[in-house]
Amino acid sequence: MIKYLVLTGAGISAESGIRTFRDTGGLWEEYPVELVASPEGFAADPKFVWDFYIKRFKQSLEVEPNPGHIALKRLEDALGDKFHLITQNVDGIHRKAGSKRLLEMHGRLDQCYCISCHRQYNMNEIDLAGDVPICTACGSLLRPNIVWFGEVPYYLYEIEEMLKNCEVFMIVGTSGSVYPAAGFVMTAKLFGARTVAINLEKPDNLSFIDEFYQGRAGEILPSFVEKIIGDSNG
Ligand code: NAD
Ligand code: ZN
């Protein structure tokens, strides 16, 4: 049984300097989401899509974990296999913070794969200054390892098992508007978990949340986590 299962979204990366999807300004305004986050957009203009992900990949190399990411790593250290983290973020900051019990359900900015033979590559093997990168094995186009709209997220089976077997399910920095992740609170609650949200604005799935803490993840999570650790030791 998992004691704490946590789902994070773009909001937890905001304090590291990465704009969320809905924020004004930043990359998402220059690159319309329907073009850069769909298989159709990639088919229509792979170069445009690659430009967007190369910029995001380079940005991800420069950003550092913030107190929110660090608090979740501390909770993992304290709870061991009674803790698990799921993220919708592709920026790799949880990994940088040292999180190991982690599922990156929407892929990773530092990887890409061949659209034909599915061979996987690390971004640092790719010439990012050239044209759209090509698979060295079969000559087809490579695409970023990102789950786009209309595609099936990774690890859904494992995630469902965890949602059914957790005491607390907590969502952090996620608007509750992108499915299937937005539906996880419903599953967890249906199977008896206590549901908690930490978010700057009210999430769209608030009706399934037992406890809502409104504010910034980097400000709320550190003391929240210390309290959990204190309670579980005492
Ligand atoms: P979202 O942009 O829809 O929602 C982010 C939520 O975070 C908002 O409700 C906002 O109020 C809240 N928020 C903003 N700053 C916060 C803070 N400091 N502390 C706590 N909450 C804060 O993002 P989403 O729910 O993750 O879904 C959008 C999709 O876009 C996802 O699929 C995600 O993969 C993708 N995305 C990823 C990144 C990334 O990897 N960093 C960035 C942008 C979007
Ligand atoms: Zn190939």
Description:
The protein is α/β, with parallel strands linked by helices and 234 residues long. It folds into 2 domains: 1-18 and 64-106 and 153-234, 3-Layer(aba) Sandwich (Rossmann fold), CATH 3.40.50; 19-62 and 109-146, SIR2/SIRT2 'Small Domain'. 37% of the residues lie in helices and 21% in strands. It contains 10 helices and 9 strands. It has helices at residues 10-14, 27-30, 33-36, 39-44, 46-62, 67-79, 93-96, 156-164, 184-190, 217-233; strands at 2-8, 83-87, 102-104, 107-114, 120-122, 142-146, 166-172, 194-199, 211-214. A 6-stranded parallel beta sheet has the order 3-2-1-7-8-9, sandwiched between helices. Strands 5-4-6 form a 3-stranded antiparallel beta sheet. The protein is elongated. The protein starts with a strand and ends with a helix. The relative contact order is 0.19. The mean pLDDT is 95. Nicotinamide-adenine-dinucleotide binds next to helix 1.
Record keyword descriptors for this entry.
234 residues; alpha/beta; Rossmann fold; SIR2/SIRT2 'Small Domain'; six-stranded parallel sheet; three-stranded antiparallel sheet; 10 helices; binds nicotinamide-adenine-dinucleotide; binds zinc ion
